[in-house]
From TrEMBL:
PANTHER family: GLUTATHIONE S-TRANSFERASE KAPPA, THIOREDOXIN SUPERFAMILY PROTEIN. This is DsbA family oxidoreductase. GO terms for molecular function: oxidoreductase activity. It comes from the Bacteria. Residues 10-209 form the DSBA-like thioredoxin domain.
Amino acid sequence: MATLNSPLRIDIISDVMCPWCVIGYRQLAAALQANDVDHEIHWHPFELNPNMPAEGQDMREHLVEKYGTTPEESDANRANMTQLGKELGFAFSFADGFRMHNTFKTHQLLHWADTKGLKHDLKQALFTAHFTHGRDLSDDTVLVDIAVETGLDRNEATVVLADQRFATEVRQEQQFWSQQGIRGVPTIVFDRQHLVTGAQGIENYKSILSQLQQMRSA
């Protein structure tokens, strides 16, 4: 049972292809800072596009195919996310030809980074690499370069991706969250029992955190 004096455990299920995961996390981070909440964050894998081919897919085409999004809706969504990102200190660069990719190997690299204490840093670096710089996260060479930029070992990162040593663990973790009913991201679980979905906004997160602190002190 969590107590008021123990850090607030925050589990975040997300995919680095998910722009709302960036926004939701940044909103939550701002609320945590504003409320001065002692916390620990644990990132967990989710694949938005598990069946996507290796070459990926143009983001516009993908949204039309998956959600029936019109070009006008797509442009409006991009403008909205870009503005939200700007307000949160994150730069979205949705250029024409922006592509989505499968992220199974990315999640394996993150799993390995967790053993080095650098999972959070790598997660943020991957968000920036994809959404700000348009780097191809399906390319092992790119992933290794990002790992090195985050402070991880190049040779070990290369081998981790080549032999996929953490593939089973990642699949098991994905299955666990699927069995908990997680169907979309971001999904945030506070203290292992309070689940919140979507990017809620800074003020809503501040309210949620205040309620949790009150419950912990009761």
